[in-house]
Amino acid sequence: MVRGIHVVPQTGHMAERSQIGRLMVLGTGSKCEAPVGSRVVVNPYNGKDAVVDGIPFKVYDDFAVLAMITE
Question: Where in the sequence is the domain holding 44, given as residue range(s)?
């Protein structure tokens, strides 16, 4: 069972350590309450790098999401 989440980091000079990103996928059994597509604040030193079709992703555990940004 996959419980992680996939976040696309914001672009810019600090994208490799960005704390804000867009939540793209919730894994099966994820306890993250943020809906897919929302902007989230994550722990920048947590997560693993992944590239799918040339697009960089970060894969985080549920506990790495610190907050959801609402506008």
Answer: 5-69
